[in-house]
UniProtKB/TrEMBL annotation:
Keywords: Hydrolase. The keyword Hydrolase applies. This is Heparan N-sulfatase. PANTHER family: SULFATASE (PTHR43751), SULFATASE ATSG-RELATED (PTHR43751:SF1). It comes from Neolewinella litorea. Belongs to the sulfatase family. InterPro entries: Alkaline_phosphatase_core_sf, GAG_Ulvan_Degrading_Sulfatases, Sulfatase_CS, Sulfatase_N. It holds the Pfam family Sulfatase. It comes from the Bacteria. One of its GO terms (molecular function) is hydrolase activity.
């Protein structure tokens, strides 16, 4: 799985979806076990669209993600429910919008004792359920009575889970990678032979050598995520489980850079997303309709033939996966509340938004607050603490009051509107321009209607302190690294025969 040539036979996959409509209407509790699919969620930590080979990225190599896309369905408009780890993962588990999950709409909260999550529903229906590495989190689930992570019991790896199965028992597995989350091993991308000159630097970053190098290090961890993906898919194939496994590969939120993670711009919310299920999902399909990752909970339950609990408000996308001609959504709603605790008043930076093919519309409920956190260190990370520390962050701050500083750290108006046809990176706010007045009015009404219909507390009380007062539950300490894993990374990098390169002094 670590080279595209290992997967040449994807061209032989057929567009077989016959009989699938009947499966959608059948209750899995009445189906024999072999007809119930295994369910595998492969979830990256801080990976943004379009950083994969299948999307045409010129640098990062993701042969395993690309192979799944060639044999399945690739989405170009998948969005996390919130650009922050804990609320995004909670929405994936519960099938609900972050504002419907109460305290779980924040980073580092407690996980509700009464929450219904798809892994538990599947376990009660006879599935063997587990996860490894990062499940739901960061946050505290034990104080509310959970005996294990809401993503499932912890296993060392998927092999251990497969060994524990009873004969014929389907499994549900959550592989929660910690890549490409920071911190990075500086120059890992260069060691891997990636060329800094080939990087597409987003216009909201300064185009400097150390910024390019920082992006290469991020890419290197994306590639490591992809190698792990290949190892698991190879295991499923060798064990005869691949054909009966629904695989979803995506990320919880955007890349850990300024104006990306913890922001509702595309770099923070738009996710790589591929679905693979031989003979059920038409191979080689590309979908441009909109998906909220919170829909995965209902999708997994319907795939297993189970009824979806009424309070899972985000709908299943299984009909779209089964039939490329089924229409999908033409827009998606976005939101965020408090990310890290980085304001002196413990305040949230609440935003709601709607995104379609033409526009991104955002409503900032606290324009007087610093969107990336106070300029002075409060509790988490440091100055502007909603942005993970990096050489890119430091270079923007060192540059002073430039456009790059304004875009990443400056205060924002109450309303933002971006014309995506001419401004795909969402740089120029046109909300105040008269020629966009009608578009702004339509989007504002659409957003308000959704907030009301979904019982968003900010519809009735836009400046509610509900999320400002939520308990913040972190344990502090630097992220630790597995030395053996980094030795393996280095050997892999050298195996790509890149023998000469200049290492930049870009340590954070």
């Amino acid at each position: 799985m670590n080279c595209p040539t290992y997967r040449l036979r994807y061209a032989a996959l057929l567009l077989l979806i016959c009989g699938f409509a009947a499966l959608l209407a059948t209750n899995a509790r009445r189906l024999p076990a072999p007809e119930r699919p295994n369910i595998l969620l492969f979830l990256a930590d801080d990976w943004s669209y379009p950083h994969a080979g299948a999307y045409g990225d010129p640098v990062v190599q993701t042969p395993n993600f690309d192979w799944l896309a060639a044999g399945g369905m690739l989405f170009t408009n998948a969005y996390c429910a919130s650009p922050s780890c804990s609320p995004s993962r909670a929405s994936i588990l519960t099938g609900r919008y972050p504002h419907q999950n109460g305290a779980m709409g924040n980073l580092w909260p407690e996980f509700s004792a009464g929450a219904t999550v798809y892994p538990r529903e599947l376990e009660q229906a006879g599935y063997l359920v587990g996860h490894d590495q990062k499940g739901w989190g960061p946050g505290d689930f034990r104080s509310t009575g959970w005996t294990h992570n809401p993503a499932g019991r912890t296993y060392d790896d998927i092999t251990q889970l497969l060994d524990a199965r009873q004969e014929g028992q389907p499994f549900c597995y959550w592989f929660g990678s910690q890549d490409p989350h920071r911190e990075y091993l500086t120059n890992l991308g260069a060691w891997s032979g990636m060329e800094a000159d080939s990087v597409n630097v987003p216009p909201f970053f300064p185009d400097l050598p150390c910024v390019r190098n920082d992006l290469l290090d991020y890419y290197a961890e994306v590639e490591r995520f992809d190698r792990h993906l290949g190892e698991v898919v190879d295991l499923l194939e060798s064990s005869g489980e691949l054909d009966n496994t629904l695989i979803i590969v995506t990320s919880d939120n955007g890349m850990p850079f300024p104006r990306a993670k913890a922001n509702l711009y595309d770099a923070g919310t738009r996710m790589p997303f591929v679905a693979h299920w031989p003979d059920r999902i038409p191979a080689g399909t590309v979908r441009h309709s909109y998906v909220n990752l919170g829909s995965l909970a209902a999708t997994f339950l319907v795939a297993a033939g189970l009824e979806v609990p009424a309070h899972m408000t985000l709908p299943s996308i299984l009909p779209e996966l089964a039939d490329a001609t089924v229409p999908g959504a033409d827009h998606v709603f976005l939101e965020r509340e408090r990310h890290a605790q980085v304001r002196a008043d413990s305040g949230s930076y609440a935003v709601r938004g709607v995104r379609n093919d033409s526009f991104l519309y955002l409503r900032n409920f606290y324009p007087e607050r610093w969107p990336a956190g106070d300029p002075e260190a409060v509790l988490s990370v440091g100055a502007y603490g909603d942005v993970d520390n990096s050489i890119t962050k430091m270079l923007i701050l060192a540059g002073g009051q430039t456009d790059h500083y304004r875009l990443s750290f400056g205060k924002r108006p109450a309303t933002e509107l971006y014309d995506l046809q001419v401004d795909p990176h969402q740089i120029r706010n046109v909300a105040a321009e008269m020629r966009y007045a009608r578009a702004r009015e339509v989007l504002e009404e659409q957003l308000s209607d959704w907030m009301r219909a979904s019982d968003d507390p900010r519809h009735a009380d836009p400046r509610t302190v509900r999320w400002d007062t939520v308990r913040y539950t972190p344990t502090y300490g630097r992220r630790t690294y597995d030395l053996d894993a980094y030795i393996a990374d280095y050997r892999y990098a050298r195996s790509r025969n890149h023998t000469q390169f200049d290492l930049l002094p870009c340590a954070e």
